[in-house]
Amino acid sequence: MTTLAVAGATGHLGRLVLASLIERGAAPSDIVAIGRDVSKIADFAEQGVTVRAADYSDAASLDPALDGVDRLLLISGSEVGRRVAQHTNVVQAAKRAGVQFIAYTSAPHADTTSLALAPEHKATEQIIRDSGIPFALLRNNWYTESYLQVAEQAKYTGLIIASLGDGRIASASRRDYAEGAAVVLLSEGHEGATYEFSGDVAWDYDDLARVVSTIVEREVAYKRVSSKDHRKILTKAGLDMGTAGFVVTLDTNTREGALADATDTLSTLIGRPTTPLADGLASAYAEAMAARQQE
Ligand SMILES: NC(=O)c1ccc[n+]([C@@H]2O[C@H](COP(=O)([O-])OP(=O)(O)OC[C@H]3O[C@@H](n4cnc5c(N)ncnc54)[C@H](OP(=O)(O)O)[C@@H]3O)[C@@H](O)[C@H]2O)c1
Predict the structure, then answer these.
(1) Of the residues 39, 225, 226, 280, which has the maximum number of CB atoms within 10 A of its CB?
(2) Is residue 165 situated within a structural domain?
(3) How confident is the model at residue 1 (pLDDT cuts 50, 70, 90)?
């Protein structure tokens, strides 16, 4: 029996990985789901998944969480700026626990990219390499669901304003990435692999505007602005300087091609095409509307 663990199981991606593992044949009793707020995965506990509470910031909480684990998926934490120390705690605890394999959700071309979010991922990749634990790097491109907010705003304004020019984004749905992670955990032969996981197709913001128009049922246009004007627009709309600067930097990275690399690595591994932008965003939008109606 191989015990598979998912750290970050309480998040959006983590829940989908748990579901994919079970769909692809893992026995719930062979799965350990680790997160801070484990009430979010009570439904998986009911199915027989072992649920353990731990905090990446609290090294002592990680030893019991990883006890008996053979293969671990470390889903990167969400607290930007604190993640290198947090991930170090997880990798060190994995080493102590005798974990045999770690898969880590990284960022596209983490070791060479100019992407502003990449340094913590690059550092984590190095920490994993240095640990001596066999590993696979799952360098996920952007989630299609990340564009839900853009669609919701465009519903009211009819506009998508950005400074990424004709930059292209090879996004895929979280479900696609989750299935990729599940395959890597469930099958052998991934040791030492660096997977550039992405959607099959890279799209630009004119494509996004067309897709959003259909979803929100109104004409939506993409307005290209300069980085300087974008920063002004964002701060005028209430964002603090730091956040506005970060958004503009990510747009610059995107304009320069940091997210443009569409590979068939993910679709090959999961055995089906990745979810097209139009389908992924329409599903996310429908789910968000349904959730809002229930509130
Ligand atoms: N590729 C992309 O487009 C993209 C976009 C956004 C984020 N990401 C990255 O991908 C990760 C997963 O995405 P997601 O959509 O599933 O994010 P999410 O729903 O925000 O989930 C984040 C997960 O990280 C866990 N976590 C955060 N800090 C932790 C800590 N100190 N100790 C233990 N667990 C901690 C959360 O646990 P609790 O829920 O229990 O607090 C949760 O399980 C994110 O954390 C981020 O690193 C990628």
Answers:
(1) 280
(2) yes
(3) confident
